[in-house]
């Protein structure tokens, strides 16, 4: 009998890690001895070359076990190794830049200056750290609602903040030698020292970096851990960071010694009107080269992340063709085959659904949308509704005209709008008309009990309606009512079960999107109402 031993966590040719197609470790043959006892005999006797290859394979396996998740590549999402390569490269650049900038911080703090005291340095350090903690609390309070929705954006922002902080550190000795403007000199008695102010800003940027990087790390780990191996993926990322830190430490020591040798050769007495010595110029050149590599590696690595969660930016790119097709149907003239045309439109839309690997949203556009709401406001509050109904005429039913002849929302128009058009929905869509079409906004009010499906439906309806409002040819209220009804009708049709028995929500899930959690940009505010006064 011949028995083979396999390591099922090692893929052999890209097969599944759970199959028997693992890497063979050993083979034995069971023989019967003269006394009828079993004898284990190794059948793959190794030659010298085979032993050398075996040693190399074992070292390679140790490296895999130490730095890659168990069962790689089948146990992690696609693009794991590529992302980790760019992440490690930018981490190495950050470490080396830290070595260059730390020397500048220590010089600015008074290291080597006989007049500087340890107590003054300690007080400055404490105030600087306290300022960073307070700023970090405020930043976390304002940014925490957006971390889950904008993982890639905040991961990019983290290193932008870090770049600013390290640049301030390196520039400290130069900035402190500059002459302050006259107006700043007059305020010097009321402001902290320039060193404390600059180093506090640097610390604040690094605190922001730590918050952003820490908040997004868990989401990125969840994205890659597709086999329930989140702890293993996280542990292997830590070992990779340790390796990068060791490499950075070795290279940083050599870089620091080299810069120190150059610094000894500098003739500071001949500096004249120059702001920097030759060594400082070299330090800045190295720093800027590393910064460019760092920004490039960070951006490319983040662009390689094909997240499966839907946020506003990814949803807009993924649904763009669908919104355009539905808008074309909404704005077309009503004909006898209108219902058939609507069905054909929704069937075409079903074929336009893209997988996460086909979506590559713009990070900068997404950042701008996070800071500025744009023309579509999702999850508005009642005060926004009150502003709309008091400043615009009703676009859906009701008399809408008071005894003075002014257009306004009447009680009947309000109830008709809520109960007739959106009575069976968990959202209500409003149009805030502006004189310039491109400035008109769509506002969505969410009801209590609205779920992810309701948010997705409201999101699609708002974008279809917004495109129709911008491209319409008439400004009549009847046109608004028509666009509102038809856009709502086509949206409902998208969420009806098609020939395959799936609605839009299910088809998105089958395309690879994680529909268990949506981050489309809705606020947490919800409303409820009844038709009675109580």
Question: What attributes characterize this protein structure?
Answer:
mainly alpha, 17 helices, 534 residues, three-stranded mixed beta sheet
Care to describe what's here?
The structure is a single chain. This protein has 534 residues and is mainly α. The chain is built from 17 helices and 8 strands. The strands form 3 sheets. Strands 1-2-3 form a 3-stranded antiparallel beta sheet, with no helix packed on it. The chain has a 3-stranded mixed beta sheet with strand order 5-7-6, sandwiched between helices. Strands 4-8 form a two-stranded parallel ribbon. Mean pLDDT is 79; it is low at 13-20 and 396-406.
The major beta sheet can be summarized as:
3 strands, antiparallel
Tally the helices: what do you get? 17
Radius of gyration: 32 Å
**Spatial order of strands in the largest sheet:** 1-2-3
Helix-strand makeup class: mainly alpha
Helix content: 55-70%
Poorly predicted runs of 5 or more residues = 13-20, 396-406
Shape: flat
- Strand tally: 8
Strand content: 5-15%
Q: End-to-end span in angstroms?
A: 85 Å
Mean pLDDT: 79
Q: What's the helix-strand series?
A: EEEHHHHHHHHEHHHHEHHEEHHHE
């Amino acid at each position: 009998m011949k028995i083979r031993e396999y390591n099922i966590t090692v893929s052999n040719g890209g097969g599944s890690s759970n199959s028997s197609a693992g890497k063979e470790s050993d083979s034995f043959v069971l023989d019967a001895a003269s006394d009828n006892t079993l004898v284990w005999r190794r059948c793959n006797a190794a030659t010298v070359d085979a032993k050398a290859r075996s040693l190399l394979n074992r070292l390679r396996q140790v490296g895999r076990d130490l730095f890659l998740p168990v069962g790689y590549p089948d146990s992690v999402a696609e693009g794991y190794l590529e992302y980790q390569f760019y992440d490690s490269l930018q981490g190495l650049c950050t470490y080396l830049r830290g070595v260059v900038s730390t020397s500048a911080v220590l010089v600015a703090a008074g290291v080597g200056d006989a007049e500087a005291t340890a107590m003054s340095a300690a007080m400055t350090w404490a105030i600087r750290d306290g300022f960073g903690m307070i700023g970090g609390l405020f930043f976390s309070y304002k940014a925490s609602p957006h971390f889950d929705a904008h993982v890639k954006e905040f991961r990019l922002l983290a290193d932008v903040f870090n770049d600013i902080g390290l640049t301030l550190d390196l520039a400290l000795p130069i900035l402190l030698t500059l002459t302050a403007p006259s107006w700043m000199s007059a305020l010097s008695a009321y402001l902290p020292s320039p060193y404390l102010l600059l180093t506090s800003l640097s610390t604040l940027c690094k605190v922001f970096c730590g918050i952003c990087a820490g908040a997004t790390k868990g989401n990125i780990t969840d994205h890659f851990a597709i086999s329930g191996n989140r702890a293993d993926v996280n542990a292997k990322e830590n070992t990779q960071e340790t390796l990068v830190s060791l490499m950075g430490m070795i290279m940083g020591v050599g870089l620091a010694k080299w810069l120190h040798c150059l610094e000894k050769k500098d003739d500071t007495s001949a500096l004249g009107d120059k702001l920097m010595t030759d060594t400082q110029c070299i330090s800045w050149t190295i720093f800027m080269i590393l910064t460019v590599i760092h920004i490039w590696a960070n951006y490319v690595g983040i662009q390689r992340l094909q997240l499966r969660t839907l946020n506003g930016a990814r949803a807009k790119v993924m649904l763009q063709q669908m919104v355009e097709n539905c808008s074309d149907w909404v704005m077309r003239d009503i004909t006898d085959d209108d219902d058939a045309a609507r069905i054909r439109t929704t069937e075409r839309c079903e074929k336009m659904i893209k997988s996460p690997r086909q979506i590559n949203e713009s990070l900068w556009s997404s950042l701008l949308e996070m800071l500025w709401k744009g023309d579509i406001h999702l999850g508005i509050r009642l005060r926004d509704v009150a502003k709309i109904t008091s400043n615009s005429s009703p676009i859906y039913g009701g008399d809408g005209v008071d005894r003075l002849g002014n257009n306004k929302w009447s009680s009947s128009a309000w109830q008709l709008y809520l109960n007739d058009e959106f009575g069976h929905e968990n959202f209500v869509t409003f149009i805030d008309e502006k004189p310039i079409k491109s400035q008109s906004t769509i506002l969505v009010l969410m009801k209590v009990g609205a779920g992810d499906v309701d948010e997705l439906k409201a999101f699609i309806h708002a974008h279809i309606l917004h495109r129709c409002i911008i491209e319409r040819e008439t400004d009549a209220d009847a046109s608004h009512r028509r666009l509102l009804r038809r856009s709502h009708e086509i949206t409902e049709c998208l969420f009806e079960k098609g020939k395959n028995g799936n609605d839009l929500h299910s088809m998105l899930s089958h395309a690879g999107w994680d529909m268990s959690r949506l981050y489309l940009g809705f606020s947490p505010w919800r409303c409820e109402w009844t038709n009675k006064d109580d």
